[in-house]
Amino acid sequence: MAAQREKWSFQWKELYEEVIDTGLCTGCAGCVIACPHDVIGYEHEPGKYTPFHLEEDLGATDCGHGQKGCTSCTRACPRFRNWETEADQHLFARERRPDEMSGIYKDVLLTRASDDTVHAMGQDGGLVSAILIWCLENGIIDGALTSHLEKPGADGSNSWKAVPALATDRESVLAGAGSRYTYSANTLALPQAVEQGLSALALVGMSCQTSIGPVMWHRRVGKVGRPIKLNIGLLCSKSFDDSIFEELFWAKYRLRKEEMVKMNIKGVFQIWMRNGD
Asked: Which domain holds residue 193?
């Protein structure tokens, strides 16, 4: 006889106490897009990237809808309670073994895009861009939740601020090619996709974001998780906010972010400048 699931009764109060107030929150915005009452806000600004409760009646730490039984925010959170085991169980029907520190996987492959343009525009070979373009052109997905950089200033300078974006064709996929190293809650592009009537989406992001999908599915969060059909998690060791440009690149190396055209951080900083340096 199959074991019955424990009744899920956890709401914003528990999410705030266990994830947000303790610093476990990664700013993925899963709770924001899952909230059916639109009472969870989010500031996509340096030093913030954290959800907060909008209703004033019970303050920042509790929710009237949660007291009435709404549990969507905790069902969507990939840092709440036993999320990692739940995600593994949902995807692979088993827990990872102690020797599977990198998670459960089928193959480890060294790949690159075969399209020369995609390869050149990618960060490390253009694989993710190539996958998204192929899936869009072959009807596997009709959109991708990804990120773009803010539009350049009037002088052509780069802002380097990453913002959530919806990609629906080759051009918009390539506009998001390459690494940012500044945080973007790509899930916040979901409402735009829903508004456009898209129903088969890829979610691209760091693992803290792409854990949202299997956690939502396992905890049965409802319709908000249904459009995500493809999860592409990017390996990372750390994500920064905009302060890295002033406090490190400018203060220590005298490199202006407006003059940077590409960066690569893998143990060392590699910066390509507009003048060719």
From this structure: 116-234
